[in-house]
């Protein structure tokens, strides 16, 4: 019985973390898109790092690795 | 994480800054000297002499051409990084507590102290990123803080805003061009000074540290509070790590009795928190006094801390640091590797 309770609790924590992480990732994506759009409007390269080392923003392992 | 200990300052550290490529770090202290160090081996590259008072702040333009500094001698100085020559001095009525270059290095903000007869201000100086250039004497913009003086400030993305932290614990967003106050909102406990403010690498969000023992993450766009990190000691500094979703906080009780074993053993700690989940995930001991400043290598390879004890400790992140991740982070891809 205790183990079931424990697992339930653990499940809830993981579920909450998943929610918090997804919320953060969604916010980042919106911010990044907006910043890109604003940079385009000003005639600037899309990313500050475009002319620098390609992985300077640490995205080599994630899905967002390709900046077109 | 075995640190390199940099011994070059005779008094407490006030700020540390890395160059954009992370290869060199600059430190300033109350001993009136700025030091430049190779971050990889701790070798001292040089010193910058000229200030006649405690140094409070340094910053480097993104091309690593010019160094700016602010001090208790009421000046902001601009230095040729290569030669160590001072190429410009701007005079103010009071001490300069913080300088910050915008993302292309053409504008420098300076936060000036409040003193009898003078309100605290945030001044913008136009800078030509060329050591030979004649720099303008004029102040391009002066923002007067008549509510509560600014203690720290930084430029947002695209230099659109100047973000300031105040003595009363609030944060402000000013228009970067006109200096108009757009928002002022309480961020930390009323009357608890904002002690540090550092931007994320793209300057769309920032972290504040406060004497109220907390650090907070806010959006540069509208000052929305994003995250809160709670500690058990007054904080002097906070930094955001690129590559890994962490933040590093530093502080410590200044009044702590130095004869206690804690202080003797160098128990003052840098605290690591998960940026998204807000949990504390680790501590790094070592300083003999409160941490006054923490800076992170912009390429995410390590960090440096500067203490009230006069030491700079440079740490290279190890395998355990890069491997660390929560289960749910692995689900979203890349074993918590994302620089989100």
TrEMBL record, chain B:
Localization, UniProt: Cytoplasm
- WD repeat coordinates: 6-47, 48-89
Using the UniProt record, give the first listed, main subcellular location.
cytoplasm
Q: Does the keyword Zinc-finger apply?
A: no
Domain of life of the native organism = Eukaryota
Keyword Cytoplasm included in the entry's annotation: yes
What SMART domains would the database entry show? WD40 (SM00320)
Q: What SUPFAM superfamilies does the record point to? A: WD40 repeat-like (SSF50978)
Q: Which keywords does this Swiss-Prot/TrEMBL entry list? A: Cytoplasm, Initiation factor, Protein biosynthesis, Repeat, WD repeat
Instruction: Name any one Pfam family assigned in the record.
Output: EIF3I
Which family is annotated?
A: Belongs to the WD repeat STRAP family.
Q: How does it assemble?
A: Component of the eukaryotic translation initiation factor 3 (eIF-3) complex.
Q: What's the stated role of this polypeptide?
A: Component of the eukaryotic translation initiation factor 3 (eIF-3) complex, which is involved in protein synthesis of a specialized repertoire of mRNAs and, together with other initiation factors, stimulates binding of mRNA and methionyl-tRNAi to the 40S ribosome. The eIF-3 complex specifically targets and initiates translation of a subset of mRNAs involved in cell proliferation.
* Protein name per Swiss-Prot or TrEMBL: Eukaryotic translation initiation factor 3 subunit I
Natural source organism:
Stereocaulon virgatum
UniProt lineage: Eukaryota, Fungi, Dikarya, Ascomycota, Pezizomycotina
What's the gene?
A: TIF34
């Amino acid at each position: 019985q205790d183990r079931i309770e424990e697992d339930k609790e653990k499940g809830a924590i993981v579920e909450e973390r998943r929610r918090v992480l997804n919320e953060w990732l969604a916010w980042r994506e919106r911010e990044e898109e907006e910043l890109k759009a604003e940079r385009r409007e000003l005639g600037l390269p899309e990313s500050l790092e475009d002319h620098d080392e390609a992985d300077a923003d640490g995205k080599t392992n994630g899905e967002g690795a390709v900046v077109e | 994480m075995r640190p390199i200990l940099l011994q070059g300052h005779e008094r407490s550290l006030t700020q540390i800054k890395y160059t954009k490529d992370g290869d060199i770090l600059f430190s300033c202290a109350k001993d009136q000297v700025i030091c430049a160090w190779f971050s990889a081996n701790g070798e001292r590259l040089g010193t910058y002499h000229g200030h006649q008072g405690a140094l409070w702040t340094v910053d480097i333009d993104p091309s690593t051409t010019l160094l700016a500094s602010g001090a208790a001698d009421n000046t902001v100085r601009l230095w040729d990084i290569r030669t160590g020559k001072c190429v410009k001095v701007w005079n103010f009525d009071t001490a300069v507590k913080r300088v910050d270059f915008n993302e292309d290095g053409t504008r420098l903000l300076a936060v000036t102290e409040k003193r009898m007869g003078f309100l605290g201000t945030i001044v913008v100086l136009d800078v030509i990123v060329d050591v030979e250039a004649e720099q303008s004497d004029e102040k391009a913009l002066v923002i007067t803080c008549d509510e509560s003086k600014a203690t720290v400030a930084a430029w947002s993305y695209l230099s659109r805003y100047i973000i300031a932290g105040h003595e009363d614990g609030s944060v402000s967003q000013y228009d970067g061009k006109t200096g108009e106050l757009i928002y002022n909102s309480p961020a930390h406990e009323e009357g608890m000074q904002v002690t540090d403010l550092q931007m994320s690498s793209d300057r769309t969000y920032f972290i504040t540290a406060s004497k109220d023992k907390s650090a907070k993450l806010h959006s540069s766009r509208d000052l929305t509070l994003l995250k809160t990190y709670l500690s058990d000691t007054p904080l002097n500094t906070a930094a955001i790590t690129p590559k890994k979703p962490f933040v590093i906080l530093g502080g410590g009780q200044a009044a702590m009795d130095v004869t206690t074993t804690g202080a003797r053993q160098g128990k003052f700690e840098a605290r690591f928190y998960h940026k998204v989940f807000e949990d504390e995930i680790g501590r790094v001991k070592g300083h003999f006094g409160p941490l006054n400043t923490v800076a992170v290598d912009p390429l995410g390879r390590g960090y440096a801390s500067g203490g009230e004890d006069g030491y700079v400790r440079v740490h290279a992140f190890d395998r355990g640091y890069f491997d660390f991740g929560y289960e749910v982070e692995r689900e979203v891809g890349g074993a918590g590797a994302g620089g989100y």
